[in-house]
Design goal:
Layout: H1 17-33, E1 38-41, H2 51-65, E2 71-74, H3 83-98, E3 105-107, H4 110-113, H5 116-120, E4 129-136, H6 146-156, E5 161-167
Parallel strand pairs: 1-2, 2-3, 3-4, 4-5
Helix pairs in contact: 2-3
Length: 170
Amino acid sequence: ADEKFDSHGRSYTTGGKNDQKAMVTKMVRAAVENDIYIILDWHIESSSGYTNEAKEFFAWAAQEFGQTHNVIFEIWNEPTGSMDAVKQHADQVIPVIRKYSDNLILVGSPGWSSQPDACANAGISDKNYGCTLHFYAATHRMGDGGYNKAAESAMGKGVPVFATEWGTVN
């Protein structure tokens, strides 16, 4: 069974909805004031995307900030299950966002967002989405062909790849 991250009730899925909404509001305002982009990230490292909760969150977020050009929506940051599960999640969450916003939507992939090619091949139909890639230089060597090939394959299908996590250490 999937574990919920926050045992202290601060996460969106464990009773901290109002705290999370207040934090997101504060961060979006700061991004706008500083003329930078912000990714509203549904960060669930799980084989379940908590789709009902995600739909509720993104309905609020898109209604509140969907016309704010600085905002990017990432609907499931680090899936650990199948791409079929991610696609089913995307097929339910993306239309909720699209009711209020045309902003960029990012979709994760299995293996903690390491398979943008699987994302690009999933059949997600949206006019403004990209697939995510997480990259850490110390452990995810681009030159070994895996990450490069996955990103190039996705981009070869016309789907952008966006690195939503990256680092230089493991």
